[in-house]
Amino acid sequence: MFDIQEELKALPDSPGVYLMKNAFGEIIYVGKAKNLKKRVRQYFQSKNHIPKIQAMIKNISEFEYIITDNEVEALILEANYIKKYRPKYNTLLRDDKQYPYIKISVQEKYPRIYKVREVKRDGAKYFGPYPSAYAVNEIIDIIGDLFKLRKCSLKLDGTRKCQRPCMYYHINRCTAPCMGNVDMEEYREEVRKAAEFLTGGEDIIKSLTEKMLKASENMDYEEAAKYRDRIKALEVISQKQKIASAAGIDQDVIGSAIGINEACIQIFFIRNGKITGSEHYLLTNIENETREQIISSFLTQFYTGTVYIPKEIYIETQIEDMEVFEKLLSQKRGNKVTIKVPLKGEKSMLIKMTKKNALEILEKGSQRIRKNIEESMKALEGLKDLLGLDKIPERIEAYDISNIQGVQSVGSMVVFERGIPSKSNYRRFRIKTVEGPNDYKSMEEVLERRINRGLSEEKEGFHKMPDLILIDGGRGQTKIGEEVVRSFGLRIPVCGMIKDEKHTTRGLIFENEEIELKKTDPVYQLIYRIQEEAHRFAIDYHRNLRDKTLFKSELDNIELIGEKRKINLLKEFGSVENIKTKSVEELSTVSGMNTKAAEAVYNYFHKKKS
Known about the structure:
single chain; about 600 residues; alpha+beta; GIY-YIG endonuclease; Nucleotidyltransferase, domain 5; eight-stranded mixed β-sheet; about 20% strand
């Protein structure tokens, strides 16, 4: 039994990270501390907490902590845990973006230029990040065509030659180094020019202008026209980058707008003194948090996850642990990084611009959310009428079972409240009482466990019963759901969600009758979203478990069957169910199997049946 008061006494006077857990062992909050003993004790000794933290404290059943050598390490670890566990009471950065970079593979004999979303230590040159994939594609096309850099992914070592060049050679967009008739030094000079321009070298345009004038003087108008076109194309790219600083260094300028339930952060990316673009981010779980805390949460989650750190970061207000952030980011960048709060000048004006943009995005987002809610309520009203329910099903729980080739079955419960996913209420179930792939019995176990918890415990997420249960399956699964609900004396409507031969939502099973849904119907669109979400959530859990257990199956319980024999058996027969039907002679033919091992498999399954 975890005794919180005793554990508080044992806390060390060290920097580190603490993990708060609820009764189910789920991590509900992650924090960092300069002194773990002082910081963690504050939660249980002070009563002056904001409402969100008060709610979190009520749900703490235990905590863990990890000691670090310093505050910088604690900051990194905190960010990693927040991203990994997405705790319910932390301010969370809603960001699935991976920014594109321009890569020039200078480590190759004949380098190429292309878009990537990951920076590796492979000797190549990387430029970015760029907030717009469209802009990256456009820049790559223009620069690649201007300097005739290859677009193929062939490994060219200077010795192997292709029989014929690709179409880019024929349309004069590549010099075809694959044919072996391109001077390597001349090609790499073009690569150097392309890289120079990407680092802000306007000297290229000056040099091309001189060449154009010289060609014109020599009356080589075709060559002059070629240089003229190059200059125009490069000027197009250059003009898209607004000058933001005469210093020509890399900077990020950050502003915020704060709403009731979420905040918007806007960043201007300045590279080589030019604004190359901007991007916005939304943070949730911000109730009662100050602007300083919100910006601090953003810096922690964003900059510990991005591969590129600018030399200077401008924010609108001082934050706690500013020096710790600077140390962390300096370590990551490899040289000094400073975080500044501009009070006047061009950066102050840019902060105001970012704040204005953030407010605009937040207001539009609120309108979008309101529209989504209105559309969802319309669909729920339609669902109520379609099923003849007494009230609108404001809380819908959907269940799915996943199993692959005899690997342990898992169940998922996803929750939609007022037609919107309530991800904090999602639950996963590892099937405990059912052997092998049996969807009916697995569904029965999941529903019984869920309802039992709801009736016996007043824990968040389970105590509130659904207005409607949706099950991914046909009449059989639906009947199981109805029987489980009745066995507890409850009156919760149960529907089956059925799919067509293409595994796409087709309709519902309700009270043993099939209801077809039109794809244009808002009810169909709601059911489709719910069914896909339930299936995705179950599959994700199943894959995670399978990876953790190294593809666990019933075969692991059989003496003489190790990992290699198990894999060979599954490859040969496809599933555990098929293996059960095979004779000793058939099992013996599998690679790596001998008679004793085949008999062990045969006897295991046939003794179980008898």
